[in-house]
Amino acid sequence: WAPRSGSSSSSQGRRGLRSCMAAPAVSLVVLLAVARGAWSARQLPHHLRVRGGAVGFGASAAEAPTPLPTPAPPPPPRPLKAGVLVVGLGGNNGATLAAALEAARRDLAWETSHGKVSASESATLGCISQLPKGPCGAWLEALAVPHMRDMVLGGWDIRPTALGDSLYDSRVLPHDLVRQVRSPLNRIRILPGVYDPSFIGESQHASATHVLQPPVVRSSDSSASSPMTVDARRFLLRRIRRDIRSFKQRHGLTGPGAHVTVIWSASVERPSSTTPETAEELLALVEGRLPGVPNDREVAPSLVYATAAALEGCSFVNGGSQNTLCRGLVELCAQHRCYALGTDFKAGQTKFKTAAVEYARALGLSPRVIASSNHLGNNDMRNLQSPATVKAKLRVKQDIFGAWNETQLDHQVRVMYTPFIGDEKRDVVEYTALGLLGEPWTMLTYTRAMDSILCVPLMVDVAAWCAAFAAKGLSAEAAARATSYLFKVPEGPGDLADQDPGFFAQMQCLRETLTALVDMPSPAPVSPAPRSAPPPPPPPRGAPSARYAEPPEYLDMPSRLPFLRRKREAVVAEQDTSKVMTEWGEEECIEGGVICAGLACLDMQLVGASRTQDHQSINDFQSVRTCAGGSAPQSAGALARLGVKTCAVCRVGQDAHADELRRLLTLDGAPPEADEFIVDTTPPERGGLGTSLAVLPVFQDGTRGCFVELAANIKLSPRELLTGIQEAVASASSYPLNQPLRSGGNRTFAGASLPYRCLHFGYPHLLPGCSGRRLGKFLRSARKILEAGVASDSSEAGDDTAPKAPRSLAALERRIIVSLDLNGVTSANEDGRGRVVPPDALRQVDVLHASEGEAALIAGLKLDGNYDEEFCRRVASWAHKQGVAVLCLTLGAGGCFVSTTPDSSRLASLRPDWHAGAAVRLSAFRVGTKATGSRPGADTNSNGAGDTFCAGFLAALLWRKPFLTLEEAAKAASLAALWRVDTALRASPNHISMNEIVLRVASGETDKYPKCNADFNEEG
Predict the structure, then answer these.
(1) What is the largest CA-CA distance in the chain?
(2) Which residues pair with 817 in a beta bridge?
(3) CB–CB of 157/212 below 8 Å?
(4) FRET label pair with 983: which of 68, 296, 306, 671, CA 20 to 30 Å apart?
């Protein structure tokens, strides 16, 4: 260590020997130290050069050092922000790191066996990047190195144990400290992890219950050793990328001066046989697109995390022993201007070995034998009981002196699992070297320390250095060399085979790099946008398309209101229906996507059920079908079939029913990004609930009944919903433009790269945690999250040179839509005042949907079965007085009724072009007519009709090429519902898209479709 001027080297040494977090002290029989000469800050070392604000490595070691000019006093550096995402967050290292950050942030004090200890004195011990009087303290302030109390923590684990409980179970820290941090740590959400049982020891399989579930039915044998499928790899990569984006947005880590580091601290994997050589090969491997290569090549979970981190501009640190750092990953990180560092943290025995052997070599001795053993009883050592995983660990432990080319050195390593001593590592090393005249020289060391106490400071250091290096634009190879002191075998960019393995030599390399960085100007921010290639800029407003010399009239954005009446018939007559999406443009025809939240269940339909008046009689049915049920999956599936960007936020169990829900969404064409399921991972014996199941007899006349077990929905809370909505908003930019369909072809999504503009929330009366007064607060908070997402998207894609939109259109571009569906509400759902939905919640609702019976109940009207237009207007009057902007009533075969509030100012924030106080009554389209594309005699199945109507109406509300009138929006919703109710259309592999619906409505084609009579007679 190089103490600052005026400080005592002896006091420095005494402070350096104190253990981090005041855990059991490290005891050494022999302590070695080698003094290093001071290095002038006015001269760069031979391997570093400064070129135009970038640091790189010189081509020749003999190149003369470059003198630096005396720098002017720099302005106060802008504080940096560091995020840490830990793979294996629930393990001993992750829990201890969380406790250290919490103690430092709150400046805690606690009692230990040797007295009272405070975080201000001990939380940073062992962390070189945090000690102002440590070996690198002279550079910390100048480089604005992030302090650990300001770091933000998150991560994944395949075990569901809460973080505070994991810390308690580990027995690493004093109980008084654990008592103070346990509850705050339990509130940190641990994300489900990537799990491939073939890569870890058999001892880890039984506890791996908190895992990401690809949208396929998984094998019941969780210990199967087959590799991940191609579809699973794609899904897992997208989910991890979404987790990273959500973390960055939630904690404000997306701007300049912010950097996120993903650290592998999970169980050691066995060596992988797959090591991609290029970034293109790596991405093709994960996506299963390697030409001429079978798609069943194995991909380790650590490589999935590393690839996701690189694509999101985050550094990846391999703290384990596996061979994750391949050339393809290093190249991918370089393309995205982040770092790939490793391998295997050098925390205890190995770190001292590199110092001890360096000492012997400095004395002129010739090391010949190093015989070492260590034993402990934590989960990492338990995992090493597997021969495949211990092979990876011994590889790095035995290869630490490779750069010295000591061919005569016999280096032996043994590791032993001893459960009784837990996390407390104990190691013994005997060093034998030859001295003068070949006489042997022997030294013996013995060390005891908590393994996590040794490892956590390295995790803090690497996150702090990555943030500081990224802010200065340090080259990848220079960063790898500067952080080599952290790893047993430094691997990564460039050729690190010549890196001196001596600990003090590596520390000197770090100090030289920091000195060079102090005088460097900060470049542009390192972290790029998550997308690997930025999308092409949209054409200027009103620009002609590829097929037209002049733009069609419907492509013009009007400058004043009203602006809806256009000559659509002439335009539509010239169009080919199959090319409408291309003509209108995917991102220009709609304003954004729809998040569907609320109740979720798996519907078991008893199709063709008979019905008698005698409730005790036996009724038969023709067949059983399953479909996605509940508001969230049902509406999301309907939007996916229409080709509208969507996401389902709901609560399910970890069971086959949840797997089936995901599979059904995939069949509807929804991509993995549409799955924001909140999974209840608690075992049933501890109060865990499974996925809700509903049994629906679909009677021969097309109507249905419903029996439902609410199950996991009972525990759904507003906080869980808001977290899911926030994560969906954060990952909105990664939504795919196309989704392959199992029936062949692709589903193309309108507005795939646009933000979510609408929240559709369904069945709050069946969700005990989200009803009553909680509903209004939830809807307000959800609206704010969507508003923040739209504002963030606008700021990132804004163009100050673009022409300003008219004020009415600018209002449309800022709007957020909140929709509420009250399907299935009964008098049993009323509160003590006879209200189903409190007025405070109704004031937050832009679009309210209900059936005729449900509408009568919520409006307090008599249930007499006479649901004529006068009844509809009375319901509308009540709803609009409560603050609802648009009311949608679905009346079965009687059609639908849609009305707008008479308050023009209230309606202006939703659709300023619609007339206030307007109402539309439409007859229902007939089932089984050739005009609609169906076949005569098709059956009727009303299950999901209301959800699909809502989906179609919200899509029409968001549509803007062309903008639709109130009547046209109602027709579009009715046509979407017809494709759900008509069994022939529902079974069609080529489901109608929203583009085609709008085309049919705008051309007047739907006016010619046969209708049902409003009186429910004859054709009805």
Answers:
(1) 114
(2) 758
(3) no
(4) 671
> Rounded to an integer, what distance in angstroms lies between the CA atom of residue 583 and that of residue 44?
60
251: tokens are: 């904690």
pLDDT digits over 457-491, tens only? Answer: 999 999 999 999 999 999 999 999 999 999 988 88
Instruction: Tell me where in the chain the CATH 3.40.1190.20 domain(s) lie.
Output: 593-600+630-692+707-793+812-1008
Distance of alpha carbon 569 from alpha carbon 572, whole angstroms: 5
Q: Where are the alpha helices (DSSP H) in 473-558?
A: 476-482, 503-518
Distance CA 995, CA 902 (A): 30
- List pLDDT tens digits, range 664-674: 888 888 887 78
Which pair of structure tokens corresponds to residue 233? 């790899």
Helix (H, G, I), strand (E, B) or coil at 282: helix
Element (H, E) at 56: strand 54-57
Task: Determine the Cα–Cα distance for residues 658 and 651; give it in Å rounded to an integer.
Answer: 9
Q: What is the DSSP letter of 149?
A: G
Q: Which residues pair with 427 in a beta bridge?
A: 374, 447
* Domain 349-448 classification at class level: alpha beta
Report DSSP state, residue 39: -
Structure tokens at 540: 């200027």
Of 637, 551, 531, nearest in space to 986 by CA: 637
Compute the chain's Rg from CA coordinates: 32
Residue with tokens 């020289």: 441
Per the CB < 8 A criterion, the answer to whether 643 and 678 are in contact is no
Sign of CA dihedral 817, 823, 827, 829: negative
- 3-class DSSP state of 520: coil
- Own/partner pairs, 620-628, CB within 8 angstroms, 24+ separation: 621/697, 621/698, 626/602, 626/660, 626/664, 627/603, 627/664, 627/943, 627/944, 628/602, 628/603, 628/661, 628/664, 628/665, 628/668
The per-residue pLDDT for 918 is: 94
Judged against a pLDDT cut of 60, whether residue 891 lies above it is answered with yes
Distance CA 467, CA 345 (A): 18
445 contact partners, CB below 8 Å, separation of at least 6: 28, 29, 30, 352, 356, 428, 429, 431
Whether cis (ω within 30° of 0) applies to the bond prior to 343 is yes
- Could you tell me which CATH number the domain at 18-48+78-218+230-346+455-518 has? 3.40.50.720
Q: For domain 593-600+630-692+707-793+812-1008, is the CATH number 3.40.640.10?
A: no
Q: Which two tokens stand for residue 984?
A: 């022939």
- Which tokens go with 382? 């338990």
Entry pTM: 0.60
pLDDT at 492: 81
Pairing of strands 919-922, 896-900: antiparallel
Cβ-count burial of 667 within 10 angstroms (0-12 exposed, 13-18 middle, 19+ buried)? Answer: middle
Question: Any idea of the CA torsion for 514, 518, 519, 521, to the nearest 10 degrees?
Answer: 110
Indicate where the chain has its CATH 3.30.360.10 domain(s).
349-448
